[in-house]
Design brief:
By secondary structure, the chain is of the alpha+beta class. Helices cover 38% and strands 21% of the residues. The protein has 6 helices and 10 strands, in the order H-E-H-E-E-E-H-H-E-E-E-E-E-E-H-H.
Length: 207
């Protein structure tokens, strides 16, 4: 089975799987939607996929494929260059073309952030907002700005886990004796309190 075919034909969206109908990358609306989706996927555990060429018809997702002019408008370099203007610090993803039967699709495979959560660095189309943190919400499968304490806590816990792993990796490489894991976690969580305060300021006032 070709790579990603099982996800393209999955027939329903998941938190880590988003479908988009055929669209032209050169349109501002498309750039906004795809950028928001990439930022959101980068802030969930294990990242996720955006598949372009799947159309929702009622409750079903139909493998319509992409128009030739649309699929040719998407390139790794073009999308990466645009998204880099909005992602702080950065986001890692790959963009590839795939065929299922006679239909062709774009698959954007987004990696989970490597160190700290990805924040939107400037305003842009489709409601992209400077300073916003996007995620794939649990209440429904959509890419949206973090809007709850639970969503923010999930993202911060991921960042703390990465700090703990990086700490032990560094001490092991240096040949140092590591402090007990419980102590390390307590220290790193204290260090993360400032991050939590900063991110909390980005939440809507009513939370």
């Amino acid at each position: 089975m070709p790579e990603y075919e099982d996800r393209i034909t999955h027939n329903k969206e998941e938190r880590n799987l988003e479908f988009k109908q055929s669209m032209d990358w050169n349109q501002p609306e498309t750039k906004g939607k795809i950028t928001k989706g990439i930022l959101a996927m980068s802030n969930i555990r294990n990242g996720g996929l955006i598949v372009i060429g799947v159309e929702q018809q009622g409750e079903e997702f139909v493998l319509v494929g992409m128009e030739t002019i649309h699929i040719e408008s998407f390139t790794q370099d073009g999308v990466a260059s645009y998204v880099a203007n909005f992602a702080s610090p950065y986001v890692e993803f790959s963009l590839t073309r795939h065929a299922v039967s006679i239909n062709r699709f774009i698959v954007i495979d987004v990696k989970e952030f490597s160190e700290i959560p990805v924040v939107c660095r400037q305003d842009g189309p489709e409601g992209l907002r400077r300073g916003a943190i996007y995620t794939r919400t649990r209440r429904m499968n959509e890419s949206a700005q973090v809007s709850s304490e639970a969503e923010m806590r999930e993202i911060l816990d991921m960042a703390i886990e990465k700090r703990i792993r990086a700490y032990f990796a560094t001490t092991q490489r240096a040949g140092l004796i590591s402090v007990p894991s419980e102590t390390a976690e307590r220290i790193l969580r204290q260090q993360a309190e400032e991050d939590q305060r900063r991110f909390q300021e980005e939440l809507p006032p009513e939370l």
